[in-house]
Each structure stands twice: as structure tokens, then as C-alpha cells.
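Materials and Methods. Structural model of Protein FAM169B-like isoform X1. The 220-residue sequence of Protein FAM169B-like isoform X1 from Lates japonicus was retrieved and submitted for structure prediction as follows.
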Amino acid sequence: MYPVDFPDVDETDLTLASEQYVSSLGSRLGGNEWFTLSQTSKVEVTANNVRLLQLFEDDQSNCAVVALHRPDDPTQVVALNLHEQWWCVDDLLRTSNKSRSGLVLVQSIMERVIVFLLSQVIERSSQEEVMFSLHPCTESCKLLWTENQAVGFYTVKHKGSLCDSWSSYCYLLPVLDTVLVRRSWRRRGFGLRMLEDFCSSFSTEEFLGVSSPLSSSMVA
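The predicted structure was written out as C-alpha cells:
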């Protein structure tokens, strides 16, 4: 089983466990802890390369996870600590549940962790800026699953929902806000599949919107 297949946890329990783990690093006795990346590579788990990562927008939630990054590059997250153990990023995007296939509405906190990884970690090269802002904790989102892996996602701003937290402006139509397909899974029609799903989900609406600016890869 993979983390997304475990019984779900709530934001409070996840954040509390994460904070307790980080605070315990400085007082640990005994041998060093290592996380194995491959047969020839491993990363030492120390207070210097472990940090809390916030999952959602600042004004929405304080939910956080424990991340392990390479000692020489804090932008390169290699694992998260969930369910009292370290999981490599690739395994966090996997499922053993055969019924989890196609476009699935995000509901659990673990599914939102996957959206976070896809938008903030997976497609990020060394020292590169992240492609997306953090999503709100209540963001309407679907994950695309194929071959037991999460390969993409899209998010929607619903008609009538607030545009931001500091004004009273609302969206006047459903808007396709963010879309991502992992690089290794592109050119297979998944982007078009998500666009079609978005349109069919609001088939009674006369007009639909797409957030701007569009990335060069999406325009292509």
C-alpha cells in the first residue's frame, strides 16, 4: 500500500505529527538516520535538510508536511515523512487501488498532498521557481490516474466563488484555473482529456473560462 491508500488523516493530526517530528530531530540520541534514494545514493536525515512545507495558501490553513531535501539544494525534495516513515516522492504518487483510475475528484488530505507534490515539487528543476501558487485547502480539483500513478491534475474556480480573500469580487463563470501533466506523460492526450472533462462537467453553462496567462507548454 501507498500513503494515498491508507485510512485518511485530518489536517490537525498531520500537522501535529509533522511538527513533533521536526522538533525531535535536535534531541535525538544514537546513530544517524539515512534515507536510501537508490542502490548507490542515500541522504542523511538531519535538522539541516528537513523542514516543514506548508500545503495550502497562507490564509487558508496551517497544514504542513515534513520534507527531506538534498543537503546542497533545498529546492529538491526527495521524500516526505507520512504515517511515521519516509516515502520517496515517486511512491507518494502511486496507488495500489485498481479502482483509482481516470479523473478522480480530490477529497482526502493525502490526495491534496499529491496535488501539492505535482504543482510544487515534481516538475521543478534545481533552483527553478515553482510553476503554481499554493492552492487553497478547499480548491475544487481532480487528479488524473493511469497505470496506478497520478500523472496530472486540474483545478476549477466555480461560478460565484470569491476571486480572493481581500475583496468581494466573484467569478462570473466556471474557470479552468490550473492544469498539469507530468513531463514524462505528455503527448498522450491527457491534457485534452482534462479539458474535455472540465467542459462536460459544466455542460449547462453557456460560457466557460480559462485562467491567464497560459504557459508556453499549454499553448503548444
